[in-house]
Amino acid sequence: MNTNKIFAGIPEEYATSSKSEIVLLSVPYDGTSTWQKGADKGFEAFLEASENMELYDIETDSEVYKQGIYMPEPVTENSSPEAMVEAVHQTVKKYINRNKFVTIFGGEHSVSIGTIRAFNECFKNLTVLHLDAHADLRKEYEGSTCNHACAVYEANQNTNLIQVGIRSMDVSEKTVMNTDKVYFAHELIYDEYWMDNAIDQMTDNVFITFDLDVLDPSIMPSTGTPEPNGLLWNETVEFLKKVFQKKNVVGFDMVELCPNPTNKAPDFLAAKLYYKLLSYKFNNEDGNENFNDGFEEHIDSPFNKLSKFRDTDK
Ligand SMILES: [Mn+2]
After folding, report:
1. Is residue 296 part of a domain?
2. 227 C-alpha vs ligand 1 centroid, how far in Å?
3. What is the pLDDT of residues 182-192, one digit of tens each?
4. How confident is the model at residue 5, as a pLDDT?
5. Residue 35 in domain
6. Domain count of the chain?
7. How many CB atoms lie within 10 A of CB 120?
8. Residue 234 domain-assigned?
9. Rounded distance from Cα 179 to ligand 1 centre (Å)
10. pLDDT tier, 196 (very low <50, low <70, confident <90, very high otherwise)
11. Where are the beta strands (DSSP E) in 185-260?
């Protein structure tokens, strides 16, 4: 299906199975979504957008594609939600056991039940950082425990689950929700410490499950259920950068891109965000050399002088 395609059009030598540190697994599953269908088309749109993206990341001064990004055959099992989850679980586990940094692109959020199960079996004391407009804590929905509305029910039972950006849920989900570890969207603007507080609650090993509908529909309208009052770009990457700096992020997934053929900006945002997260991950692993260099440079940058000027001008 995607066998001829390569993420972001990177040179083939950086996309081989043996030499790649990173695995990008597509799960184009859209079997249980309830409103706008189309999450199965997300990966194609994401890939197409990625081909128009620069491979140099200014902020981290890095070209993370040189770590190698391999795309295996997509998981296309769709005979039932349960069978899809099990296929994802086994495939993800296979690549974790090959020591790859495994990333998964949906598809709808039910794919994460399989990804989280695999990571939780392979890493001790796992924190699942869940960014989403929706709580996704239902035990069962429309006759299945593998529905998108149940995406993190299991993670809530078996891992240290931290939820950010939530602004839509059913009252029944309150019975299982651990509100001490939930950062509701309406509270974020009043709480200047939410990022640090959330990070303080994390164990060292963190898996990130990123539902694109956590973002505000003004920048991410291409989701099945767009909800107002979402996160914007800068706060999202600021938070995730801190998580990558302070914790051992063991993998992440990105789900629910439901592309609109007449607006490609959200597809590009998803590609850019994906690449940004990889840049944060591998920049940290290089002994922080690049980070420190970059930081010192910034001290004397004209931008920094400008902000100092603003401070003293008040
Ligand atoms: Mn959602």
Report:
1. no
2. 9
3. 999 999 989 99
4. 78
5. yes
6. 1
7. 18
8. yes
9. 18
10. very high
11. 205-211, 248-255
User: Tens of pLDDT along 201-238?
Assistant: 999 999 999 999 999 999 999 999 999 999 999 999 99
Peptide bond into 107 cis (omega under 30): yes
Going through 159-276 in order, the beta strands assigned E by DSSP cover 160-166, 182-184, 205-211, 248-255
Task: Beginning with the edge strand found earlier in the chain, give each strand of the sheet holding 69-70 in spatial order.
Answer: 69-70, 22-27, 101-106, 248-255, 205-211, 127-131, 160-166, 182-184
Q: What are phi and psi of 9, to 5 degrees?
A: 60, 30
The angle subtended at Cα 184 by Cα 181 and Cα 187, nearest 5°, is 110
Residue 285 — very low, low, confident or very high, per pLDDT cuts 50/70/90? low
Q: Phi/psi of residue 69, each to 5°?
A: -125, 110
Q: Is residue 112 part of a domain?
A: yes
Give the confidence band of 4 by pLDDT, cuts at 50, 70, 90.
low
- Domain span at residue 241 reads 7-289
CA of 303 to the centre of ligand 1 (A): 37
Check which CATH number belongs to the domain holding 171 and give it: 3.40.800.10
Which amino acid makes up residue 295?
Answer: F
Least confident of 73-87, 133-147, 300-314: 300-314
| Protein residues near ligand 1, an ion, with CB under 5 A | 132-134, 211, 213
- Mean pLDDT (the chain) is 90
Cα-to-centroid distance, 196 and ligand 1 (Å): 23
What single-letter DSSP state applies at residue 132? Answer: -
d(CA 16, CA 69): 7
* 145 φ/ψ angles, rounded to the nearest 5 degrees: -85, -5
Of 280, 206, 210, which is closest to residue 242 (Cα–Cα)?
280
